[in-house]
Design a protein that fits this description.
Elements (H helix, E strand, L loop, with lengths): L11 H9 L4 H17 L3 E3 L5 E3 L2 H30 L7 H18 L6 H28 L3 H36 L23
Helix pairs in contact: 2-3, 3-4, 3-6, 4-5, 5-6
Length: 208
């Protein structure tokens, strides 16, 4: 596996490496595993209103995207949402939610794939997904489906996502810190990322 880290999304090698993931049987198998996990857990949520719910798949989505990159993440988001719907159908199929699933996977990959991680970067990724996917687009789909005004749905969505943002960020940090050593041993992420995500500065450990 190419162990290079990238500081810019404009690097052509970054996108070339992301495209090569589709030719790796191992990476395809890893992606299939995350699709199965995300699809199986997609029905687990806490309903707040008819239009708002708390999902539990965000850290699985983020972790998978950090491994196989933005292009495969788009495919994973599409397949996960579609398969999840057919496993546990709820109402009619709505493509807007499939778009949300794809964009969430894409944003996580752009922040995490071959990038040096930190608590700030994880927070920024979750903030972006919450704002663009959950609030702006999610409120639009809810307004269209449930006949409520966009201002009403976007206000309710902002409140929910603002409250959840610190907790979701903390969960993602803990998951990444716990799983990264295993991922580096399996050569699924570059070794340089192993000591990333400093929670508290430690003596003798240099921040990256």
């Amino acid at each position: 596996m190419n162990g290079r880290m990238y500081s810019s999304l404009c690097d052509r090698d970054y996108w070339a490496e992301a495209a090569r993931q589709f030719s790796s049987p191992r990476m395809l198998a890893v992606c299939a595993m995350f699709i199965a996990l995300r699809s199986a857990l997609s029905w687990l949520y806490i309903p707040l209103t008819d239009a708002l719910r708390i999902q539990f798949t965000f850290f699985i989505t983020a972790l998978g995207a950090s491994i196989y990159g933005p292009l495969m993440a788009l495919a994973e988001g599409f397949l996960s949402d579609t398969i999840g719907f057919f496993l546990m159908p709820s109402g009619g199929y709505f493509p807007g939610y499939t778009l949300n699933a794809m964009l969430a996977s894409l944003f996580y990959a752009l922040f995490f794939y071959r990038r040096q991680l930190s608590v700030l970067r994880i927070f920024a990724a979750k903030f972006t997904v919450n704002l663009v996917v959950n609030v702006l687009l999610g409120a639009l789909w809810s307004a269209l489906l449930y006949g409520k005004g966009y201002l009403y749905t976007v206000t309710a969505s902002i409140l929910k996502n603002v409250v959840l943002l610190p907790l979701e960020t903390a969960v993602m940090v803990l998951v990444f810190r716990a799983v990264h050593p295993l991922l580096t041993r399996l050569a699924l992420i570059p070794a340089q990322a192993r000591s990333a995500i400093p929670w508290i500065a430690r003596k003798g450990v240099q921040r990256q």
